[in-house]
Inosine triphosphate pyrophosphatase (Tuber magnatum), 158 residues
Amino acid sequence: MLRTLCFVTGNASKLAEVSAILATSGIKIQSRALDLPELQGNIEDISKHKAKQAAEAIGGPVLVEDTCLCFNALKGLPGPYVKWFIKGVGHEGLEPVLFQGRTDGKIVPARGLARFGWDPIFEYKGQTYAEMDKAVKNSISHRFKALEMLRKWMEAHV
């Protein structure tokens, strides 16, 4: 039975964690850093491609690891590209900041021109968004309120 694995990583922290986790298993870890091109795609395809390339380069069995960090608010991003996101925006850049605007109203039979989304059926103070002058809608809408929060946040943090 194979008792030694070549863990392909250049990340000393990953190596330390893997070694610590497997320390009592009797499996010994050797490591080797390889600069492998990263395939784009889902985590499964990326990991399989990485393992195949590493095994060919090493000439035998390897252990590879790839991780994902997926934010539901970002529809799964950065996913397997988290390493590159952190390099580009830092840890703070991966903290989603949500700006949620709300305008209370009611759903009514459609009125006004159907130019945008659900504007004809959302009524606020007697008028649907579709019936309002665009400047009026843009001064009271949920979108305005969220963007106003964004503007204030950026003034304070950027």
Q: What stands out?
A: Strands lie at 4-8, 28-32, 62-63, 69-70, 78-79, 106-107, 122-124, 127-128.
